[in-house]
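Quick one before lunch.
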Amino acid sequence: MVLAALATGGLAGCGDDVCETESETEITGTSGSTSATEPTSTGPTTSTGEVTSTTAGTAMTDPSTSSASATETTGTTETTGNDFMCLDSGELCFVYAFAFLEGARVGALELGELVDGGALDVVVGLEDGYQIWSGAGGGSFTETPKVLLDNAVLDIVVADLDGDGDNDIAFTQSASDSVEIHVNEDGLFFPNDMVSVVGFPRALAITDVNNDMNLDLVVAAELAGGVNLLIGSGDATFSNSVFTPAGSAPLSLVLAPFSGGIFDDMLVANFGGDTIGYYPGEMNGFGDEKGVGMIAGPRALAVGDFDNDFNLDYAVSGEGNDAVGVALGTGVGTFDTLDLFAAGLDPRALVAADFNNDLALDVAVANRGGDDVTVLLGDGTGKLGVAQPVYSVFEPSALAVADLNGDGGPDLVIASDGAVAGGVTVIVTKGA
Ligand SMILES: [Ca+2]
Ligand SMILES: [Ca+2]
Ligand SMILES: [Ca+2]
Ligand SMILES: [Ca+2]
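Model of the calcium ion complex:
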């Protein structure tokens, strides 16, 4: 989303400030239990959607053959002058591991098991489609054929949407007001459904809203100023159901059981309204907005337990005042006032994870205007320390976090949608 998240200056149809991707809200950490990004669950099929793969037909070609033919655009493990940046304390360093798709404007990024088994794969949203890079271990990835689409992909979720045990993907086609679902059959992806969502669908999250064991999609529509509920039938098809008004220009959302109930509750970041709205989960949808967090230009959300009290909290990037806010949850659906911490210039995406292994959740922030990624170490009480740059990269737009090299520490995947650089960079954590 969520966990989370990411993009812009020039994605098709988007203004510089409003159309980037929001956020990755991928969470790991001491208690990150959000369900927005990597749920697993449920139960087959229609099909629409227009997909043309670069190699032919309506489905991707076998990734194993594609990786063999990926010589022109494979990633690189060459080091750069920027290849090793340590925290001031020296306890932790972020080391360049891999980069790919240099020059591509990457607006969305999601990790998940998609092809080939084994290591986590990454799927990236591009200006004209999406592409899966198969995890090869150690933080490196192997290309599979790009799937061409009519419009930019601004958000992606990965989950098993048809209950066959393989993860599928749902993604936005914002400029054509639709959400599309492609199902995974032995590592090949086939268009399975396309749902109309008016108002520039911009961010996606997934959960089982109506408790029928079928995953549903929750979609923030930027220009409509609200959230659409797409009810899943268990066969990777969805029907547009309830619309819940939110605030102005919602750019991201996360779902998590903040109140401890059986339904996930929802937070929506209203970029244009400078608010984060909280909506309690209810059978068949979400209740009225209840409680609002205030921060200038909220962009991306991340969920976790920042003060180790077993109640879920959230962090939000605030582009308007170059800050990250943390709001501590009470466990019953209310939150303390947001505490703000300086992040970097134009904070865009953020993720929460315990990078230095001290059992206190930390935050990594992609500062699009500052051309860097900073880490703010948490102290375990909900406070964050000074923002420390851990990587310089041109116009970072999206982040994802996971242990990619198998050492137990969370690593970072950074996407850039910059007009000059672009691409995806992987940095891994290592003790100094
Ligand atoms: Ca599946
Ligand atoms: Ca459901
Ligand atoms: Ca907490
Ligand atoms: Ca920590």
